[in-house]
């Protein structure tokens, strides 16, 4: 049986990335409705089948993060999604958080929940074929926020999640996302991202999380989407790498970025520019959701005649990101 370190290294190996297809039912429903597809269990299943059966996906994708519903659904040929992924040479992941909820005492901030019963859920997901897990914390930059209270609550939950996953045999993807929402500058995003990552790694150490058996999934360091001054690609790449060098221990096998609302092309360009920022102790790769599957969803729009075109749209993004690595 592969060790946590072997699985973590496989997740970030061979220029491949991790596809985030773990939208919660609410998020997936709005994405389907936005392209004119009714939100139903079956339409979510069909859409996810389109994504994972994209020809040659395995060449640029090492694993796919699934949500609980997809993990229990089957492809048209009767295989479960984790089984089909394994047959195609990809790892199956599972999102185990239960969502970001309002933080008591901080009306504009959230804390991610899902620790209750997690030990038992991890055991069940292992039995269903999952090999890695994901938990996303969201940090908002704004007037007087993030508060220390929100940062500490979120990193505490992330570290306890990571420890429980490792204990149960799943590699945790640890995702502290500093959101792009707002008009903050690149420098403010860097300051917050650096502070969050510092406290996160202190907490992971406290909870005895093995750094060589996890993957970090951070935001790139960018300006808020409403900031009038938008930095160029090379500045984003250098600032992101500088921030990670300051905070992420070399034992972590890989860093897989989220796209966070960047356009697919810009996220790929940032990823490519980071590979030219000197020798790095960890693999730098992608774990995009929207920046990988957005064009496929727009192309498909529920039309079975567009199935192959939609898969081609996903393929184009996946190949471009692998090439950028
Ligand atoms: C795919 O979306 C993931 C789950 O979102 P919800 O639980 O809010 O429905 C999300 O965590 C995603 O994995 C990350 O945000 C990365 O996706 P992007 O689109 O930011 O690359």
Automatic annotation (TrEMBL):
GO terms for molecular function: fructose-bisphosphate aldolase activity. InterPro entries: Aldolase_TIM (IPR013785), FBA_I (IPR000741). Pathway: Carbohydrate degradation; glycolysis; D-glyceraldehyde 3-phosphate and glycerone phosphate from D-glucose: step 4/4. Pfam families: Glycolytic. The keyword 4Fe-4S does not apply. Its EC number is 4.1.2.13. Keywords: Glycolysis, Lyase. Belongs to the class I fructose-bisphosphate aldolase family. PANTHER family: FRUCTOSE-BISPHOSPHATE ALDOLASE. This is fructose-bisphosphate aldolase.
């Amino acid at each position: 049986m592969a060790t946590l370190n072997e699985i973590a290294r496989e997740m970030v190996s061979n220029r491949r990335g991790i596809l985030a297809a773990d939208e919660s039912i609410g998020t997936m429903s709005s994405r389907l409705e936005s392209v004119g597809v009714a939100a139903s269990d079956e339409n979510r299943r069909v859409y996810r089948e389109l994504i994972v059966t994209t020809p040659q996906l395995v060449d640029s994708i090492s694993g796919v993060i699934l949500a609980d519903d997809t993990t229990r659904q089957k492809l048209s040929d009767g295989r479960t999604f984790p089984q089909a992924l394994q047959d195609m040479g990809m790892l199956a992941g599972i999102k185990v958080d239960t969502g970001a909820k309002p933080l008591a005492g901080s009306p504009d901030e959230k804390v991610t929940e899902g620790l209750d019963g997690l030990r038992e859920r991890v055991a069940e997901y292992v039995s269903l074929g999952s090999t890695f897990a994901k938990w996303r914390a969201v940090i908002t930059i704004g007037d007087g926020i993030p508060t220390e209270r929100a940062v500490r609550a979120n990193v505490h939950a992330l570290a306890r999640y990571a420890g429980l996953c490792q204990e149960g045999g799943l590699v945790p993807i640890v995702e502290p996302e500093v959101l792009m929402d707002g008009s903050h500058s690149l420098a403010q995003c860097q300051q917050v991202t650096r502070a969050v990552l510092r406290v996160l790694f202190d907490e992971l150490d406290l909870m005895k999380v093995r750094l060589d058996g996890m993957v970090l999934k951070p935001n790139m360091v960018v300006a808020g989407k409403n900031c009038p001054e938008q930095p160029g690609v090379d500045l984003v790449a250098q600032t992101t790498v500088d921030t990670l060098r300051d905070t992420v221990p070399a034992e972590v096998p890989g860093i897989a970025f989220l796209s966070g609302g960047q356009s697919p092309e810009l996220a790929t360009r940032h990823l490519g520019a980071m590979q030219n920022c000197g020798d790095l102790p960890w693999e730098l790769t992608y774990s995009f959701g929207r920046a990988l599957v957005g064009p496929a969803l727009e192309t498909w729009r529920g039309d079975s005649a567009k199935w192959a075109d939609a898969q081609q749209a996903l393929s184009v993004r996946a190949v471009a990101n692998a090439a950028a690595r």
